Amino acid sequence: MASQAIISATFSTVKQCQALGCFPRVKIVHTSKQIYGQIYIPEINWILMVLTLGVAIGFHDTNEIGNAYGLAVLSVMFITIFLMALVMIFVWRRSVALAAAFFIFFWFIEVSYLSASCTKVSQGGWVSLVLSLIFMLIMFVWQYGTHKKYKFDLQNKVPLKWILALGPSLGIVRVPGIGLIYSELATGVPPILSHFVTNLPAFHNVLVFVCVKSIPVPYVPPEECFLIGRVCSRPYRMYRCIVRYGYKDLQEDDLDFENLLVQSIAEFIQMEAVEPQFSSPDSTSYDGRMAVISSQSFQSSSSLTVLEVEEFGTIISLQTSKSSTLQSLRSAYEDENPQIRRRQIKFQVPENPRMDPSVREELIDLIRAKEAGVTYIMGHSYVKARRSSSFLKKLVIDFGYSFLRKNCRGPAVGLHIPQISLIEVGMIYHV
Question: What are the K+ potassium transporter C-terminal domain coordinates in residue numbering (predicted)?
Fold first, then answer.
């Protein structure tokens, strides 16, 4: 029973650390549709098996294994006292005096046990300390490298004035379709846009900057999941979508994500036309203004109507294209993957004589872009330390962080992005 509890607790802890950005991406399998926390992580399970066999074979005495286990349990209890005192102050809003009294009372008790257990460090207790340091080092390297990468994106955002100077066509060819540009930035234009345009001067008619955020709450209500905003003025057809998940939400393959995204953008376009706070003649003030779009209000909405719902045999049949070559490739992909099914929803702008002509035109462009196909664009980054960096930083970034990134799940896999519609843009980050 104790081993099963440790395995389940390890899975849950790793999942929450990954959601908070403190652990490399691993495969998480949800083994139950009714119980949210019932998960299985193959990589962690193999690591636990190897460590268990190593400890059992290395130690020929159960007393030494007991010393390692006892030191681990007492260390956890000792750390829990500190965390409990913080919870009493910041979460429960108790007085500092009460938290201090609780901390001092239990601290003396745990210190007496922990000091007695520290005498067993040389008799097997060192295993718990070594494993703790290894996992702390992994978490520190991952968090440090991720923070540096995010800071690089933040400092190298594409200036909005540069985009406005190019005009609604962005100075390139705007091809039919919707381009979903994934980025960790919640505001501003990521550098992947300029890097992509520099090498391939063509982009989709509708651009959506998608930012997936895991916030430190267990669950996010459906009515607060989508935040939609506009990056530039209406003719640019550039939007921003922030998708928020809690660390206990099931981020499985959402078959209706594209449909929900289109409906959310349509809702925002309608709301923007009637809400005075969203109408501004200054194009530079658009970015940063977001609106919460409820996914539960689509049925009562009049922005788009559903024409038909059909079932298809693959995950990519939702996306249609006028290109015969691309259609043949998708047909071949469907023949190889007959087990995946998803539905196709076609939209139409309702006949409303009171609708603003510019709003109707924008909605029609959005529907046409959806029918032309959805393309997912992500950055395939290589993080390198600068030449002027210290030896320790080069060791952490060039070896530790790079090793973890190469041996963990890719962001496209974690976000359940179909490979047939994915474009990865290679970039080198000098942090």
Answer: 176-430
Residue 288's identity, in one-letter code, is G
Half-sphere exposure of 229 (CA within 13 A, CB side): 22
Burial of 354 (0-12, 13-18, 19+ CB in 10 A): exposed
Could you read off the pLDDT of 402-420 as tens digits, one per residue?
A: 999 888 887 777 677 878 8
Residues near 87 by beta carbon (within 8 Å), at least 6 away in sequence: none
Q: What are the tens digits of pLDDT across the range 361-399?
A: 888 888 888 888 888 888 888 889 998 999 999 999 999
Reading phi first (left if > 0) and then psi (alpha if -120 to 50, else beta), residue 40 is in beta
Residue 389: DSSP 8-state: S
Tell me whether residue 124 is exposed, middle or buried, using C-beta atoms within 10 angstroms of its C-beta: 0 to 12, 13 to 18, 19 or more.
Answer: buried
pTM over 0.85: no
- Residue 140: other Cβ atoms inside 10 A: 13
Structure token digits, residue 294: 């409820």
Domain boundaries, the chain: 1-153, 157-277+287-312+322-380
Please tell me the distance from the alpha carbon of residue 15 to that of residue 148, in angstroms, as a whole number: 22
Element (H, E) at 96: helix 96-118
The CA radius of gyration of the chain, in Å to the nearest whole number, is 26
- Is residue 159 a contact partner of residue 191, using CB atoms and an 8 Å limit? no
C-beta atoms surrounding 89 within 10 Å: 15
Considering only CA atoms, which of 26, 110, 33 is closest in space to residue 76? 110
Helix (H) or strand (E) holding 106: helix 96-118
